[in-house]
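Q: What would this complex look like in 3D?
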Amino acid sequence: MEILAGSLSAGLLIGMVFALVALGLTIIFGVMDIVNFAHGEFLMLGMYTALLTAQATGVDPLLTIPFAGLVGFLLGVICYLGFVKYLIRGPMVAQLLGTFGLMLVLRNLALFLFGSEDRTIHEGLLVGQSFDLGMGIILPATKLAAAFLSVISFTAVWLLINRTRIGKALMATALNAQGARYMGIPTERMNAFAWGIGGATVTMAGALLVNFWSVTPYVGLLFTMIAFAIVALGGFGSIPGAFFAGLIVGLITELPGIWDFIAEMTGFDWMASVPMTSFKYTWVYLAYFLIMLIRPRGLFGWKH
Amino acid sequence: METLKNALDFSDFPRLDLTLAAAVAIFLMVFPFFPHSSFAMSTLIQFLMFSLYGMGWNTIGGYGGQVDLGKAQYLGIGAYTTAVMLLRWDTPFWISMPIGVMLSVTWSFIIGYPLFKLKGHYFAIATIATSLVLKDLFEVWDLVGGSRGIEILAGKYQTPDFLHLIFKGDDTYYYVILLFFFTGILFMNAFRKSRLGFQLRSIKDNEDIARSLGINVHWAKIKTYAIATAFVSAVGSFHACYVKNIEPEDTMSLDISILIALMAMLGGAGSLWGPIIGAAVLVPLKSYLKEWLGAQAGMVGIDLILYGAIIMIISAAEPRGIWGMVDKARRRKRS
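A: Here is my prediction, written as structure tokens for the whole assembly.
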């Protein structure tokens, strides 16, 4: 029972951060139908930004989120205006490979600048502390704070898109770019804005993640795939979908714990001998594949 | 018979192309007789291997327009089949390679059937997902050595061993893969004029119209996917014998899948020469960048930054590839 409760709580907490990781991808995809392979690399840069700012200035890593968001916003806008704008005129294969090139550049730039060693945050207000709620639910303070701040950021972005003028213009561009242009919406600027928001949310997620996840230049690909799975599950372009799918994917990554629980309950020895932790992320990929086959537009999807 | 005639018939190309192609073919055939560095030799072998992968990808990705980013899984299946069979049962390459191809094609049918219900981005990402699932599986599977992989010890065999494809120098490997290469070109030449080739091009242009003409779109895609798979798997088997040390990370990673697609796109997807041109540009570029810049202290990653930047520029500026540029220039000249 304790294993199960522990796994479920850990899965939900990490799921909230995953949701924020995927938010940017779903916005960008919803607005302009482009899949960004460099998404995980944005996250990696967010992690480095938070880590290095915290180390340089001595503030708590959790307080670097606004700065990381700003860096991400600029990064997104620069990527759009300097590169993606030209890319979207080409066929789909060029878009996929172009963002793959962007991913290579960002990843190796990080390798060049920061080196390949694992880096973790060792000090901070919350590092090392945890709340024991009993029943095997141990909530590390950093994860709890990250999940909480993730929900706040998520809500802020949701409000920005659904309750403000600029958000409405963004939705109009997503639904019908040509129609939006006739209505006087600067769609080009809206695209850049979508990339900015996408970049900002994912770097903020990185700033949260770095509190309990070590960062290397190669960390990105895993999160790109996780984000793809979340976006597919939630429905490409759907914001609430990304949130709930993030929670589900968070639970999927905790499947090994749930598996152990079942093995313990049923007493099947063969179950305990399966190396489930090696397949931690395999289930995410498999889930993506199955979701695409059963329900291609995802749980909340409106665009496909 | 008709197929063979088609395969040998290159008459629909302009004379300039054929002259150039013949010159390149002769150069490739006599290259080992000239003094060369071993680095140049291995780069050339890499070039031949990647142009074969690219040709395979070109059937489904170029002619069919289905962006497949999971080709590395078949490279892995081919390479592992050959390596495991060689180590366990001492099976000759010429038997294990067709078995590897059969396994790959079977697997491609199993996942191809559901995969091709998807379109566009969804298809592309799903191919990545299947490839990563298989890679994860291979990393924990003891029979294939887990994440440490398999090593073929060449010392056990009396070189040159044509049966098991174990040689001492690179020269013999070069001629083996060159043979594959020419066979591949002939096959592709027949393919592009075959019924399936025409069906695919019409699917790429407009799937609904293709269906209305009575083409079984789903089945045509699956068949072509199997052809592409066979190419990659066969060369994967060769890869196992040539490299002799295979791990999931360097045979089945996403980078390889993307590189394969990139070669074909860079050269010009959907043309006979495209993947070859792409490989001829990209493979030497990558290995020489690594040779010049990758090894220098304090310059880690610079080669891949440049490489990535080149990919970005090409895909933004000329998404139809080098062959697309040539085509455009020719059309302008004619009009």
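A: To summarize the key features: Chain A touches chain B through 49 residues (CB under 8 Å). Residues 10 and 254 of chain A are 7 Å apart (CA to CA).
Q: Very helpful, thank you.
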